[in-house]
Amino acid sequence: MLIIILFIYGSCTGSLLVAMASRYVTGDSYLFPASHCDTCQTPLTYWQLVPVLSYTLLRGKCQTCGGTIPAVTLIVEVTAGLLATTVTDWTSFLIVLWLALWGFAALCDWQTQTFPGWVSWLATGFSLWHHSPLVWLLGCACLLAIHLLWPRWRHPVIGDGDLEMMVSYGLLRGVTATAHWLVVACLLGLWRARVGGRIAFLPDLVVSAVGWWLVA
């Protein structure tokens, strides 16, 4: 029963992350207006807002206009639900929150190749919670240096958000786990680049992080 409850909470969080990312892309408020179809702007009724179930009943289409609801909505809701079922203590809770934050950033980055800067700071705070004050100072200094230096680099070989997540992951999981994580993420990135050209790398980093957490 507890696993089912955790899955419901997680899938609701995933639905919220998708909605927030969509509004970040369009520049709308996170709070207003109420949830609506992105195609016809029709407000959604209560039964159309149930994570996973509503998408399944609607068969991935708006009931009013027939517009397609992106499959990523269902994928994120299910994945967030599965992540929530892994919460067993305070440490796992923080890691799942960390993954949720970067998942939101990845959804934004996937569509705009940008994401809100506060995500990096908050996620890094979660990754530093068990470290000493000195590591806190060094971690924050590293993040600040990235924020200050990357805008001055004309042709960076990697995005500042990607590097910020790498720093945050290293602080959270350690050197060995970071190496394994990066190998899978790079393979995903290379495959997507071969298929579709220039890509946002953050989604690959997040997919790899989620995968390692679920199978570990």
TrEMBL record:
<dbReference type="InterPro" id="IPR010627">
    <property type="entry name" value="Prepilin_pept_A24_N"/>
</dbReference>
<feature type="transmembrane region" description="Helical">
    <location>
        <begin position="128"/>
        <end position="150"/>
    </location>
</feature>
<dbReference type="InterPro" id="IPR050882">
    <property type="entry name" value="Prepilin_peptidase/N-MTase"/>
</dbReference>
<feature type="domain" description="Prepilin peptidase A24 N-terminal">
    <location>
        <begin position="8"/>
        <end position="87"/>
    </location>
</feature>
<dbReference type="GO" id="GO:0016787">
    <property type="term" value="F:hydrolase activity"/>
</dbReference>
<keyword id="KW-0472">Membrane</keyword>
<dbReference type="Pfam" id="PF06750">
    <property type="entry name" value="A24_N_bact"/>
</dbReference>
<keyword id="KW-1133">Transmembrane helix</keyword>
<feature type="transmembrane region" description="Helical">
    <location>
        <begin position="90"/>
        <end position="108"/>
    </location>
</feature>
<feature type="transmembrane region" description="Helical">
    <location>
        <begin position="170"/>
        <end position="191"/>
    </location>
</feature>
<keyword id="KW-0812">Transmembrane</keyword>
<keyword id="KW-0378">Hydrolase</keyword>
<protein>
    <submittedName>
        <fullName>Prepilin peptidase</fullName>
        <ecNumber>3.4.23.-</ecNumber>
    </submittedName>
</protein>
